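[job 4471] stage=fold_predict status=RUNNING
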Amino acid sequence: MIVVAAALIPVGERSEEQLFPEGVALVTRSEGADAWELFPEELRAMARATLARQREFALGRRCAREALALLGGPRVAIPVGRFRDPVWPFGYVGSIAHCQGFCAVAAARTLPSSGYPAIRGLGLDSEQAVSLSEELVGVVCSAKECEWLASRQGDGLPWDRLFFCAKKSAYKCLFPTTHRFLEFRDMGVRFDAGHGAFDVTLPSLYGTPSHLFGRYLIRNGLVLSATTWMEESACP
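[job 4471] inference complete, writing structure tokens
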């Protein structure tokens, strides 16, 4: 499934299913891809990986190139960076998420075009919609967030996993610019459960916003979270 601009997963028209703002290309796939679809520099990065990892990597790069094509971008290699993150071509940002045979990729232009605003960063994460272990909850969530979790017990949603997913997507949104490693507890998340949205409070880092806003979706046993760093959300 490929969706452009008002990106929906799955195809739908309700506003709460829109993970990203207009101007973002979103591609999702569940079928596999083979290593022969990779560029030479991508193949070299996967030379020692298992066959399963090579196929996962190839699927991600396939989706990434499809997303770039939807934006009118080049068909080029997307190498592995110094910190093992994807290196997007000049003028574009993106994020790749994998989860058990499923892949989702978001991409956007970093300069405004055709009425769409400039986007400085995208973060996308996908996870199984199951609860975290009790030990991991203590790593991911602050005391205040744990109190909120306790208040939501019994509503049937894996909110602890949603905290994990939201914070990962925020981290992935920032990291290509900051190259700063953040712990889960460095970020605070507040959910707007009625609208499938969340707000991430960030530590003070030079050149970054104090907040990021995102959306989440639970479908087919998966949680997807998405954050967008808009140009107008510039640092204070």
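[job 4471] summary: The chain has five helices and nine strands.
[job 4471] exit 0
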